[in-house]
Amino acid sequence: MRLYTKDEIQHAVRLNTTVIDGIESAFTSLKTKKVAMPPIMRIDIPANNGEVDIKSAYIEGYDSFAVKLSSGFFNNPKLGLPSANGMMILISTTTGEPQAILADNGLLTDIRTAAAGAVATKHLSREDSRTVGIIGTGSQAKYQLEALTHVRPIDQVQVYGRSREKAEQYKSFIEKSLNMRVDIKNTPSEAVNNSDIIITTTPATEPVLKAEWLNEGQHITAMGSDAEHKQELDTNVLEKADLVVCDVKEQSLILGELRSCSNSKLINQVHELGEITSGLKPGRTGYNQITVCDLTGTGVQDTQIARYAYQQLNFKEDDYNE
Amino acid sequence: MRLYTKDEIQHAVRLNTTVIDGIESAFTSLKTKKVAMPPIMRIDIPANNGEVDIKSAYIEGYDSFAVKLSSGFFNNPKLGLPSANGMMILISTTTGEPQAILADNGLLTDIRTAAAGAVATKHLSREDSRTVGIIGTGSQAKYQLEALTHVRPIDQVQVYGRSREKAEQYKSFIEKSLNMRVDIKNTPSEAVNNSDIIITTTPATEPVLKAEWLNEGQHITAMGSDAEHKQELDTNVLEKADLVVCDVKEQSLILGELRSCSNSKLINQVHELGEITSGLKPGRTGYNQITVCDLTGTGVQDTQIARYAYQQLNFKEDDYNE
């Protein structure tokens, strides 16, 4: 068993179409294969405003699976440290032996989360989507946008963030790295207006997106809420949408946007992303539909990206050994 | 973060009274401190007769806690591999940062499990206990006996195992390493007869110990059952006992000896080990009582032993650096 550092992993793993296709197949496997994906294990450390989550999933037929530890300690920034930490452990499904420690510090989670956004957008947004409205300026605001460029011809971004300074940093980063125009907006509604795709990527505990700002034909990916106290979408967004999709209903009802929804008829009609990627249910069926996808994060994504990273790392090693 | 190998850990950690006292305090903390100990996460890999368990516990006031992965893949012996694998990850409760990977391959679990047996025996067996009857010849049969020597004046062992060859190996190992006499018995009842302390340490799925074999004053530690399909004690053993104790009732009812017991009055009277170590409830109160302790394994033990190992490893490192 070897420990791989974030630096090694960063050099080996890129957010590309192979990764996005892999994450798509992980969602499909939730509906087409036997999958063991236990509920998230969570340990709260209230004394230090911290939490550790443990996720895992075994997909039938795969020769390995991942156990992921991820933590958020929200006093860390005061100590000059990032709030997030994490690692993945890849385990052989043949013998139970640990194959690798991927000490990625959350990098692979960032990549697999963004890839899920791309998968959702590929099935739910209009094919001619060019403009993205982003609420939030954190690392997922960057990764999600990069992932989108692999599935839609994006060439313009409208961003809103509570901190003007961070919005400026975001603009500068994206304009350099992805070579597309970024407009900083003063309100979330301005970021939403005329966007083909809207991404909410905030730790908000109260809605940052309202139904009255939406136009026909828009797609929304909400990936911020992953805990009992978080919410990004006003429930009237779900009511207004023609199609509501989530990654795992059971999780979204506890940790995601479905938590705040009391309309049981609506909840019954929600599709899971794997139903759409597997072809069991249709995605977008009309140009003017409003579509929503709520992502809370799943163990199958972790198993998929950890396996991919391990393959890439070993391929690179072989390369170096030539 | 550093990865420590089994070899390094083996050199740094000994099964001694410090470890036993630490495990005792871990049980006490379950009753006297705020503890976050989520239910065990389990991933089954039926295709390869395998399972992976994840345990964790945070004890208030500690600056770190452990997440433990342990696996049993029961086709491994056919491949020439041990069925068990495992590791512990020590995480800072201040920042969430991983401090160490203890790639102990189950060694620390063996030690903390044996230490729990010693804690139970210290509170529940007669102080003058000299003879131990052991059913089972695996690694815990060795570790449990070694742990007992730290709390009781053990000088004789009666062992029964289904394989005569393994019983011979056990006898030879114990006589050399612990310098005490070991008699191999032909039946479990002979191993039980005249023993002061009885340890069952088997993967049995049907009872290996029956009430009719028991004498007044005996103590039994049953540490084999840790899964829904396992059982070592005939339920009439629990009925006959004057005092039944377990590590965590909720777990014992699902994974341990209480699972097979339908006597709700008896179950109500079962004490948890932490109630006894903390002084909230008495242990043995009479010379002729029959006492039982069922151990299924707890996350607080893992956190305790992982913290101890890390301290020892760093102490050793400092030593080497001098």
From TrEMBL, chains A, B:
Pfam families: OCD_Mu_crystall. SUPFAM superfamilies: NAD(P)-binding Rossmann-fold domains. It comes from the Bacteria. NCBIfam families: PRK08291.1. This is Cyclodeaminase. It comes from Halobacillus shinanisalinarum.
